[in-house]
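[audit] Reproducing an earlier prediction to check determinism. Same input, same settings, fresh worker. If the C-alpha cells differ from the archived copy the diff job will pick it up downstream; this log only records the rerun itself.
[audit] input (402 residues):
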Amino acid sequence: MNFPEISERAQAIGAKVEAFVREVVFPYEQDDRRDHHGAPMDVMVMEMREKARAAGVLTPHVLPDGSHLTQVETAHVLIRSGLSPLGPLACNTNAPDEGNMYLLGHVGSDLLKEKFLKQMLSGQSRSAFFMTEPAELGGAGSDPSMMITTCKKDGNHWVVNGKKAFITGAEGAKVGIVMAKSEDPDSMGGACMFVVDLPDPAIRIDAVPNTIDNSMPGSHATVTIDALRVPADQMLGEAGEGFKYAQIRLSPARLSHCMRWLGACIRAQEIATDYACRRMAFGKTLIDHEGVGFMLAQNKIDIKQAELMVYWCASVLDTGSLGTVESSMAKVAVSEALMRIADNCVQVMGGNGVTDKTIVEQVFREIRAFRIYDGPTEVHKWSLAKKIKRDWRETQAATQEA
C-alpha cells in the first residue's frame, strides 16, 4: 500500500488548525475551568470557539457547502486539532459532535439538517448520542442487539421509553440522537434513531459520574427516558434501520478518536522529550540514559505505526467501504500503541508526569478511557476472530467445490 497523498487543501487547513491550537488553545490548558464537566467548561468552550471562528478553523473538516473532507484529509486535520485535549473542543472536531454531524450529514433529511445539523456545524450547540444502556439492566453496550429502550408509533409521533448510560455530553447538550428498539410491527423489531431537542422533560439525567477522563463537557450521564414523544419527521432515516446507521456513524467515529488522541500523544511526546533533554541526573541529561532514551525511541516508533494505521484505514473508508473490519483493527492497534506512548511519557517525566503542570497526565487518563469507549480492545478482537473463522469456512467451502 502506498501512503495516501495529502491534498493541498488538507495541508492548508491542517497548518491553520495546528497554528491556532499551538498559539491560542495551549494557554487555556492552565485555565481552572478546563477541569469542570458543567457550565464553567461550557463557557470556556464557547469562548475558544469564537476565537476559532475568527481564525477560520471552526468545524474545519466540513466545507462551506456542507460536504466533508475525505477521511484521509480529515485525519490530517483532526490529528492537528488533537495536539491539545482542548483543541477538538475549540475547533468543533470533538466527540460525540463530530460523529453526530457525520451521521446527520449522511442520513438526515433536509428538515433535520436545517433544524439540528446547522446549529452543530456553527459550533453553537453540543450534542449527545443515546445508545449505551445500564449493564445492570442487561442493556446494550458493545452489543447493540441487547437494546432494551423501546419506541412505538402513536399517530404521527413515536413514543420512546428506556434508560441510557455513559451518554457523553448529555448534560448541557442541545441536540440528541436517541436509539431505540421498535415495537412497531412494520419495523420487525429493528432499531430506530430519532433526533430531538434538548433539554426535554421526558429525558431525565439521573447521575453524572466522575470518570477517569475529563476532556468532554457534560461527562457521561445516566439517563431515564420516560414517554418521550418525537414527531415522526424527526426519525433519522428509515424505521428499523438504526443498527445499520449506527455502523455508518461508528466506523469513521472510531477512527476519528484515533486521529485526535494520536495528536495528543504527539504533543505528550514533545513535552516528555523536552523534559528529558533538559533534566540532568547522574551527570548527564535523562535522554542520554538508555532506560529513558529507549522509551522515547519506542514512542517515536509507535507514533509512526499509529499514523500509518490511521491513514490506511482512512483510505479504505474513502473507497466507499463501510470499513468495519479496518476500523476495528485501527481502534485496537492505535489505542494500545497510544497507551504505551502516554505511559512512557509519564514515566520519563517522573513526579512531574503525574501532576497537572502539563497535559501529559491528562493524556494518560484520556487514552486509558479511549481503550474502552467505542468498543474495548477485547470486543474488537472477538469480532475479528469471528471474521477469521468465517473467512476460513468460506475458503474451505470454495476449495471443496473446486
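[audit] rerun output stored. Observation attached for the diff report: The beta strands are 127-130, 150-154, 157-168, 175-182, 191-197, 203-207, 220-231, 280-281, 284-285.
[audit] end
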